[in-house]
Amino acid sequence: MSATKQLVLDLPFDFNPDKILETATPDQCAIVLTTGCEALHALLNKKNELSNEEAYKQAKTEEAERWSREKTRLEEDAKREREKLENTNADQVKQLEDKVNALQNKIRSLESSIEGKDVLLKNVNTQLNELSASEIKKINDARTQTRSETFEEINKLKDDLKTANSKLEKATEDRLEAEKIHNKNLKTEVEKVRKELEDKNNVLQSQLLSLTGRQATSATKGKDNEDAFAALLDKAFGPTQLYKRLDNIENKPGDHIIEWEGTKIMIENKKYAKRVPSNEVDKAIRDFETNVDCNVLMFVSEDSTITGHERPGDLDITHTTDGRTAIWIGNFSSNEDKITYLQMIAQFIRELGVLQAKVKQLEGGEALKNYKISIDDLLLCFKNTEEDLDKFLNLQDECERQQKEAWDKLRDGITSVATSFKIRQADAIGMKNNNYTICGANPDATVANDTPTHTTRVIMRRPMRKR
C-alpha cells in the first residue's frame, strides 16, 4: 500500500481555492501542484530575462498595486461600517471611530511593510549579482552529467534486456528440443509396445481360432489346461539340470509329475467354476498314496476353492497316513504373477524337505510337534511374502504415476515462466514508451518520471480571517 505525503502551504487570507481540490485524488493534486510549479518557473524565468533594475521596479510596482488594492478594500469596509453606525448612540460611534482609526493604523503598518519588501528585493538583487559565472557553470555541468549518466543507464538496461531475451529464447528452444526428443523416444517406445501387443494379440487370436475349431469336449478342454499349466511349471522350476517333467510315464497318476532337486512332485490341476468336489479330492489322495515314489502332492484349483481345504490365502498343508506332504492351492488364477507364486511354493517344498529329513532322524512326539510348528511358521512366512509382493507391485504402479505427474508439472512450470517473462517484458517496454511520450525530449523529465515509490498529497491551508 503506497504512503500519502502531506504538504502544508501558507496562502493569503483572501485566497479561495477551487472546491474541486476538496474531492481531488492524490494523483490529481500532484498534477495541479506540478502545473502551478511550472507556471511559477515560467514567471521567474520571465523575470530573469529582465535586468535587475527592471525586475526590481516591476516587483515594487506589483507589490504597491496589491497593497493599494488592499488599502482600498479596507477603506471601503471602514466606510460601510461608518455608514452603518451613523444612527447609533455616541458610544457606539466612538467605538466605530476607534475601529476606523485601528484600521487606518493597520493600513499605515502595511504601507511600512511595503518599504520592508523593497529592502528585501534590493537584497535579493544584490545576491543575484554576487552569483559568479563559475557557480552557474557548475550547475550546468552537473545537469549535463546527470543527463549523460541517465542515458548510459537506459542503454545498459536495454542491453541487459536483449541479453535476457536471448537467454530465454535459447532456453525455450532447448526445452522444445528436449521435449521433441522425449516425445520421439516415447512415440518409439509406444510403437514398440503396440507392435508387441499386436503380435501377442495375433498369436492369441490364432490360438483362439485353433481352440474354437476343435470340439468343445471335456477331454480337449482338460488337455488345453494341462498344456498351459505345464508351460507355467517349466518357467517356474526350470530351465535347470535339477528339474524335469516325467509326464511320459505310462499310467502316471495325476495330471503332471515333475522331479526338482531330487524331490518328485505329483500335481493335480483342476478347473471348476465352483468348489472342487470331494470325490476329486479323495481320488487325488488315493492316487498319491498308491504312487509311493512321489514325495509331495500339489493339488491346484484354478478358479475355486477345494472342498475340505478352505483356508485364509487359499493355501493348506496336510499329510497322508505315511507322513508325506500334500499342498492344496485354491483360486490359483487370481494371482497376478503365477510364476513367482509357484517359485514361492518351490521354496516352501524345499524347506519342507529339510524339516522332514530332520523329523526322520528324531523320535518321539516332541519332534512331530516341532515339525507342525515349523509348518505353521512356513505358512505364515508364505502369506507375509505374498502380501509384500502385492505391496511392491502397488508401489511400482504408484511410482510410475508420480513420475508422469512430475514430468507434466515440470513442463507446465517451464511454459508458465516463459509466458510470465514475455508479459512482464511487454509491460516494461510499454511503460518506457509512455514515459518518453509524456516527457518529450527533455532528459531531465525522463529522470523525474521514474516509477514512484509513494504518492505526495498537497494540502493548501489559508489563515482564518479575523472577525
From TrEMBL:
Compositional bias ranges of the Basic and acidic residues kind: 55-86
Positions of region (Disordered): 55-87
Annotated coiled-coil segments of the chain: 147-214
Keyword Coiled coil set for record: yes
Origin: domain of life: Eukaryota
Keywords noted in UniProt: Coiled coil
UniProt-recorded name of the protein: Uncharacterized protein
